[in-house]
């Protein structure tokens, strides 16, 4: 029997949905192959059950009982045992590939595996309404209907006690980044772009194009708006101090812009604040530190849990509902 693992953050919402929906589908279509799914999380509180809305929606709409689900942490041992790893987001995928590079050839995002091109992330419903959970479930279910037909196109070769998934097709899943600066941040922005190109990120430079004096809100808005509209996954903004860009970007609905001039803040604001725009000041940090801040900020994942409740409150303030 071939095994695959679905991975999300806390293993209480998206990945259990995917696991249970997939196993139901396979059980109903046994001719499609001998596969079994499990699920795990990157930052798990061990022993948690599926979230209330996950349990309710799966039971009422899919006749699936999720009461026996117990959250588990993704481990190297688990990665070694399975044939395929499907994550809910590109950041989940990136974290696993960075930590376990020897298994990178069998790690895909769910959407990336289905399309074999630049996929997008599965909606995270944690802390949101039942309707958002329902939307997430439908999104996952739509992807799963295409998965099984592709599973048997892949070649498996024994590699000791594990099996290695090989695939010569392009896997994509590149994070898309919008980047901008004013005249003061132009030179540092060029260095950051060189880093993004070297690391294989997809990006769009939204200006400015030289060191002539401009108004930072113009470029802060362009980048923030692109992130808010989900045209890009994250944004990076540079001005003299980073403060003006941060203020401007945070005026755009759905944007959580974080001003970072040290690595700890860059890590914490992704883990705890789920920031989606990074701002820096070219007159405050040097190139080396700036690039390290970018590296850490792009590589960290949101931890969810108690932090999601706080993000929800920020959204309530933004909507005038607090």
In words, what does this structure look like?
With 322 residues, the protein is of the alpha/beta class. The chain is 44% helix and 17% strand. The chain has twelve helices and eleven strands. The chain has helices at residues 14-28, 52-62, 76-81, 90-99, 110-115, 130-151, 186-199, 216-228, 243-249, 263-273, 287-299, 306-319; strands spanning 2-8, 35-41, 84-87, 107-109, 155-159, 162-166, 176-181, 202-205, 234-239, 257-259, 277-281. It has a five-stranded parallel sheet with strand order 8-7-9-11-10, with helices on both faces. A four-stranded parallel sheet has the order 2-1-3-4, with helices on both faces. Strand 1, helix 1 (14-28) and strand 2 (35-41) form a beta-alpha-beta unit. Helix 1 packs across helix 6 (130-151), helix 2 packs across helix 6 (130-151) and helix 10 packs parallel to helix 11. The protein starts with a strand and ends with a helix.
């Amino acid at each position: 029997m071939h095994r695959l693992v679905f991975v999300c953050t806390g293993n209480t919402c998206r990945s259990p949905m995917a696991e249970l929906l997939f196993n139901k589908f396979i059980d109903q279509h046994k001719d499609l192959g001998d596969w079994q799914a499990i699920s795990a999380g990157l930052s798990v509180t061990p022993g948690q059950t599926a979230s209330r809305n996950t349990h309710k929606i799966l039971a009422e709409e899919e006749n699936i009982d999720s009461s026996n689900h117990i959250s588990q942490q993704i481990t190297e041992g688990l990665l070694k045992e399975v044939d395929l790893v499907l994550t809910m987001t590109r950041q989940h995928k990136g974290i696993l590939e960075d930590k376990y590079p020897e298994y990178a050839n069998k790690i895909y995002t769910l959407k990336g595996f289905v399309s074999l091109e630049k996929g997008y992330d599965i909606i995270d419903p944690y802390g949101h309404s039942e309707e958002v959970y329902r939307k997430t479930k439908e999104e996952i279910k739509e992807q799963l209907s295409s998965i099984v037909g592709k599973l048997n196109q892949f070649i498996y070769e024994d590699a000791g006690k594990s099996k290695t998934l090989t695939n010569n097709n392009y896997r994509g899943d590149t994070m898309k980044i919008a980047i901008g600066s004013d005249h003061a941040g132009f030179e540092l922005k060029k260095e950051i772009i060189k880093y993004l190109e070297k690391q294989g990120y997809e990006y769009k430079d939204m200006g400015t194009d030289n060191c002539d004096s401009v108004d930072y809100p113009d470029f802060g808005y362009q980048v923030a708006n692109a992130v808010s509209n989900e045209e890009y996954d994250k944004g990076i903004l540079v001005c003299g101090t980073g403060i003006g860009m941060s203020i401007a970007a945070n005026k755009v609905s759905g944007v959580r812009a974080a001003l970072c001039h040290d690595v700890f803040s860059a890590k914490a604001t992704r883990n705890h604040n789920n920031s989606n725009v990074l701002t820096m000041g070219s007159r405050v940090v040097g190139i080396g530190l700036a690039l390290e801040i970018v590296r850490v900020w792009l590589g960290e994942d949101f931890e969810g849990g108690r932090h999601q409740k706080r993000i929800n409150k920020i959204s309530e303030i933004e909507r005038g509902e607090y």
